[in-house]
Design goal:
By secondary structure, the protein is α/β, with parallel strands linked by helices. The protein contains 5 helices and 6 strands; from the N terminus they run E-H-E-H-E-H-E-H-E-E-H. About 40% of the residues lie in helices and about 20% in strands. The mean pLDDT is about 95.
């Protein structure tokens, strides 16, 4: 789709950090996402740090749906016993964007080698809103936000709201 078919839509972002060890002061990845988005002219309408707990993740998902059309969850996507962002969010996606995770892992391969197979990055849409679940490392959030989310968010929201 060429740029003439992309609506000039206002993007409002929610950034939700999922971590049992961080708070709003020590959340460097959440701060990095917010800085990258605001640097691209995207307003942050909601931000919170929450623990790795499915009910709380889902509660914040529904809160963010009311406040933003771009929702980025960072953290809680790994393989440890308490990582549950993917399990919490995936069932709530109306449509998945499988290419997001595929391309994220491909680009990650160049940065971290075969450790990229540990990434469970997922994206999709619900209620015309774009939802992204990305790993919480600074490198991962920089890659996902600057290389994938920011360049495509208007295109995604244009399609999701048709």
């Amino acid at each position: 789709m060429d740029s003439e078919h992309i609506k000039e839509v206002m993007i409002e972002a929610a950034v939700i950090t999922v971590s049992t060890t961080r708070d709003s002061i020590s959340d460097s990845s959440g701060a990095l996402i917010r800085d990258l988005l605001t640097g691209a002219g995207i307003r942050i309408s909601y931000y919170v740090v929450i623990p790795d707990q499915i009910p709380q993740i889902r509660e914040e998902f529904f809160t963010a749906l009311k406040k933003a059309n771009c929702i980025i969850f960072n953290g809680g996507t790994g393989l440890t016993h308490d990582d549950c962002t993917i399990e919490a969010i995936t069932p709530l996606l109306e449509k998945r964007m499988d290419g997001f995770g595929e391309i994220f892992r491909q680009l990650s391969l160049e940065q971290v080698g075969t450790a990229a197979i540990l990434s469970r990055a997922v994206a999709g849409v619900t209620s015309g809103k774009a939802i992204f679940c990305i790993p919480g490392s600074n490198g991962a959030v920089t890659l996902a936000t600057s290389e994938l989310i920011i360049p495509q968010i208007r295109h995604i929201v244009t399609h999701a709201t048709r």
